[in-house]
Amino acid sequence: MITFKQMEALFWIAELGSFAAAANKLNTTQSAVSKRIQELETGFGIAIFDRSRRTARLTEKGEELLLLARDLLERRDRVVERVSAKEVLARRFRLGVTELTALTWLPALIDEIRAHYPRLIVEPEVELSSVLFERLAEDSIDLIVTPDVFHDARCIVTPLKRVENAWMCTPALATATLGPHPPRRLPLAGLSAFTVLTQGNLSGTGVVYGRWFRQNGMPTVHSLSSNNLVAQLGLTLSGLGITYLPVHTLRPLLRRNLLQIVETDPPLPDIPYAALYRAEHASTLCADVAAFAAQRCDFTSPLMSAGTQTGGGEKPGRALPGPARGRRAP
């Protein structure tokens, strides 16, 4: 008798490239996965994998069976989601987000998901944008929330809000570098006086700003790169350089005069965010989670690590720009 467990084993071995990876994905042992494949081979009287190779390479018959297995599993999932009420749908949902979302509105999103799908097991993963997109492409994650930099026809994209960033450094560094009476708006060329702390190409924000710097003729600067937002903030607070950081989420540090905005001409563009999931696996659940993300997305709340209370004797920071601008869904 053919079972869904056997089909899942075949599918994930082919997707992930090894029996061990499939076992990890299915929360079972490698021997259990091997047994399921052996049962399939015995039942059909064929070899599914070419065992003369070191990697899990499908035979010609194995490729045919994989196509049937993929179709069968997709039909099963559609039936389960369509027939099951949201209140009783029980499955794992793998949700990928970047650091900024995790530090701001992720708890609100999870609360919203649980309110509509109380038996859903939400498994959040916090990673760099490029890593999350790779995970989505290999189908090891269900939905991701990242800067909107991945234009891929295989994905359904739900636009979210935008993040307003500004150049920031410590007040002491600003005074030491620009003097006590700095220009109201610093030309981009003026940033060459600072060590510029940037995010690398693995970060969606880093990709957007890297392109923008080139388009606007930003001069060559001494720079340090970090793919970790918290590390980037820590380096900035240590007075090691100037960097771009989210304005509204860092209001507590600006109010406490731990950071200062350095306005530039031209100013930094906002970073658009989006929720993405694979079109071939489109489902009511993914569409709902993307809609919940659009409802709950809020980059104006303070970073959890920044705190929200300020003491009575603290000096206020410089005047901040207006509120972040949202983007309407098309």
Describe the structure.
The structure is a single chain. The chain has 330 residues and is an alpha/beta fold. It folds into three domains: 4-83, Arc Repressor Mutant, subunit A (Orthogonal Bundle); 92-161 and 272-296, D-Maltodextrin-Binding Protein, domain 2, CATH 3.40.190; 165-269, D-Maltodextrin-Binding Protein, domain 2. It is built from twelve helices and 14 strands. Strands 4-3-5-14-6 form a five-stranded mixed beta sheet, sandwiched between helices. Helix 9 links the parallel strand 9 and strand 10 (222-225). It is elongated and about 80 Å long. Mean pLDDT is 86; it is low at 305-330.
Outline of this structure?
By secondary structure, the chain is of the alpha/beta class.
